[in-house]
Every structure is written in C-alpha cells, then in structure tokens.
Amino acid sequence: MDDLTDNDVRTILRDHRDGGVISRLYATGEITDDTIPALGVLSTELDERGEHETAERVADVISYADAAGERPPVRGWVTKT
Questions:
Q1: 3-state secondary structure of 66
Q2: 62, 78 contact by CB (below 8 A)
Q3: What is the pLDDT of residues 18-77, one digit of tens each?
Q4: What's the CA angle centered on 70, arms 64 and 74, to 5 degrees?
Q5: What pTM value is reported for the model?
Q6: Closest CA to 44 of 31, 56, 32, 27
Q7: Cβ proximity of 68 and 33 under 8 Å
Q8: How big is the CA angle at 7 (ends 50 and 77), to the nearest 5 degrees?
Q9: How confident is the model at residue 81, as a pLDDT?
Q10: Which alpha helices (H) appear in 1-81, and where do they start and end?
Q11: Rounded to an integer, what distance in angstroms lies between the CA atom of residue 75 and that of residue 53?
C-alpha cells in the first residue's frame, strides 16, 4: 500500500459515494466510527463482484482512515492535494 494523499482518497471514493459516511469522507474528509465499517462492506462487495483491484484500493482507504482516526470535516478538504 502506498501512503494515500487526501486527493487519492477522493479519487478512489468518487464512484462509490453512498449518501452517508462514505460520501462525507469524500466530500469533507470527515471520519466517524461508522466510516471504516462502511468502507469494509464496500470493499467486500467490490471483491465479490470481481472488482479486486478496486476493492484493494478501498482497503487502502480503510488503512488511511484508521491511521487518521475519527475527525470532523477537514477545512479545505476539496482543495488539498
């Protein structure tokens, strides 16, 4: 796993916004106690559909979120690279 940037996280999650915690991470950088479980479900679903590389990238986002810890929305999130 490469160290992901905030922009990498947004790129990986762009097509997987769910209207919930994944969308909030995508849009604001917010990480709650529900974010990692939601990403885990997404990764599993992708893997079961045979989208193994995408599932691995989402797993990288899980590692990113775990390392970052719970946090409120990040100021300037969409402009960070």
A1: helix
A2: no
A3: 999 999 999 999 999 999 999 999 999 999 999 999 999 999 999 999 999 999 999 999
A4: 80
A5: 0.93
A6: 56
A7: no
A8: 125
A9: 53
A10: 6-13, 21-28, 35-48, 52-68
A11: 30
